[in-house]
Write a structure and sequence with these properties.
The chain is α/β, with parallel strands linked by helices. The chain has 12 helices and 12 strands. The structure holds L-homoserine (HSE).
């Protein structure tokens, strides 16, 4: 299985490490022999049709940061996405919620050149969900995005595949790991700026952390869930959003006196979508701390279920890419058998 990895930040590098650690299992359990034929960062592309040496790519990234040092065949074509032969294109560039670029153009080129696409980039899905799903269908390729919500926690898969025959009527959750980490530290008395610095150092925050603290990242995830799980056709403009930058530290002690703490809550109920900081009871199943995410789904017949797991982190998010890769391989195999 030939793979192009576009975006070599925390998630891209974690994915390469995970591939190196999973080669035997991937072949033994799923019949996958992954071959990364190209890696792309903001400075250039390194390419080898027989597969790159991932240890070398990682060493170069850790040392100097630029892939142009890789002594391989370097492609400088602007149309590399169309020109390179590969089964899967990974779009892992940073989220941009203004115009979704460059991720949106990358995904469109990959789908048009009939490559299956996996992304953890929320911008293209938050801004152009329906058209990307249609483009993938039209080109008869798979488009997967498990890591856009919940980091490594299979929130989208749970809602989409584990409640077959039932109907989810609403859901409420904590969808951003960085703000949950900051709010947890603030409730222990740490000032906002220090908590944010800590979250950035630990690699939880977006390349542009204002997306986390202003609530945009949680709103983007809410939009992806509403479209994919509930079948809505909504965009970021439909979300009533408030971030965590104006929380007064006194609010934590007021909430604590009634057994609560402030959490950034995202809710989707009867087409009403909001993200805002509100006091949550410590007995509520979605009350989780640190970088954990939690979502309670309410269904017509099976009642309420809550899924909890780490919502941010390079290796956690890389694990969702691996799940998507396995699903793509299994679907390709089923298609060939039929
Ligand atoms: N910055 C995001 C978060 C990363 O903190 O939840 C995972 O989407």
């Amino acid at each position: 299985m030939r793979i192009i990895v576009c975006g070599m930040g925390v998630v891209g590098q974690s994915f390469l490490k995970l591939l190196l650690a999973s080669y035997t299992t991937l072949y033994k359990n799923y019949g996958i022999k992954p071959r990364v034929v190209a890696c792309v960062d903001s400075k250039g592309i390194t390419y080898s049709p027989t597969g790159l040496d991932l240890k070398k790519v990682l060493a170069i990234k850790e040392k100097s940061g630029s892939l142009l040092e890789y002594a391989g065949y370097k492609l400088n074509s602007r149309n590399y996405i169309e020109e390179i032969d590969a089964e899967v294109f990974l779009e892992l560039t940073p989220t941009n919620l203004s115009n979704a670029e460059p991720g949106l153009s990358h995904i469109i080129s990959a789908l048009r050149s009939k490559k299956n696409v996996i992304t953890v980039n929320k911008g293209p899905l938050a801004l152009s969900f329906s058209s990307l799903i249609e483009l993938a269908d039209y080109n008869n390729v798979m488009f997967r995005f498990s890591g856009t919500v919940g980091g490594g926690t299979p929130v989208l898969e749970f809602a989409k595949h584990c409640l077959k025959g039932d109907k989810i009527t609403s859901f409420t959750g904590i969808l951003n790991g960085t703000t949950n980490y900051i709010l947890t530290r603030m409730s222990d008395g740490l000032p906002f700026d220090e908590a944010l610095r800590d979250a950035k150092e630990k690699g939880y925050a977006e390349a542009n952390p204002s997306l986390d603290i202003e609530g945009d990242d949680a709103a983007a995830k809410l939009v992806i869930m509403a479209n994919w799980i509930m079948g809505y056709k909504v965009t970021l403009r439909d979300v009533d959003k408030t971030g965590i930058t104006n929380i007064n530290p006194d609010e934590f002690s007021r909430a604590a006196s009634s057994g609560k703490s402030i959490k950034l809550i995202a809710k989707c109920d009867k087409k009403e979508l909001y993200v805002k900081p509100i006091p949550i009871s410590k007995d509520d199943p979605i009350y989780v701390n640190g970088t954990l995410n939690a979502v309670t789904f309410r269904s017509e017949h099976s009642g309420e279920q809550t899924i909890i797991g780490k919502g941010a982190g390079g290796m956690e998010t890389a694990s969702s890419i691996l799940r998507d890769l396995i699903e793509i391989k299994q679907n390709m195999t089923n298609y060939q058998l039929n």
